[in-house]
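Try it yourself: sequence plus zinc ion, in.
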Amino acid sequence: MHLSGATDIIFGVGVALMGFAVGSFLNVVIYRLPREGLSIWQPRRSFCPACRNQIPWHDNIPFLSYLFLRGRCRFCGTPISARYPLVELLSAILAFSLYRKYGITWELLFYWYFVCALTAIAFIDSELMVIPDLLVLPTYILGFVIAVVTPNPELTGTLVWAALDRAGWNPRLISLAGSVMGFALGFLSLFLASKAYKLWRGKDGLGAGDPPLLGLIGIFLGWRSIFPILFLSSVIGLLSVMLSLAAGKLPSRGDLGGVRLPFGPFLVLAALFWLFYGEPIIGWYASLLTVQ
Ligand SMILES: [Zn+2]
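Structure, out:
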């Protein structure tokens, strides 16, 4: 219908523009949250980390200001990290993709919060090798809430869903069970892997924040996502190590054992991929199995 087509475009553009604004706020979270003594809400206005000058509103327009200022602070000329426009653009793309997947629904809102938390986690972990609890623990609760509010067969898969349905379970309870299974499988697989590594090598091979992060991903994406995401994130991680080695950014091979790499950003990349392409892949795989 003509009207709904036009409305669809207006909503899509609106959500993408909000995505830019949300990305601007994410930059504040990424910079301030892991740093002692900086509050998210105070000061209200952003400042240049180099000269501490307040940034005027017209230099603080998401993405565009970076281009107009050619990536430098207006006052002191210090280069502005390319992370700022990157996060803003990424945030807009993710928001638009979520709108395409969910439309205007509760799921759009909750999964939007989820991908924002993932984005902040990825950038904080890649810079400082920490994953703040504040980004993980409250998001757990939102994940369980949306599983109950909007029963979601993606969380369990059709086979488990049908089995529990036959057993007389309420759809909301089945959906919540899928989330809980996702948390348990995600958390335990990395927790046990890190314990095993510690027994074997006598030192930590994973950050303490990685098992809770994969648990969070399992809550929103369901238990079936865990092993594909583990596989995909390992491949992305390995590729990026090889690219860094080729670019001479890491010490030579022999020293690699002493270098710690944040695993969080790779888990996040794989999870975002699975959020948008997981169901089509499972559908394709199932069609391969059922073809005579
Ligand atoms: Zn400055």
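One thing you can check immediately is this: The chain has a mean pLDDT of 91.
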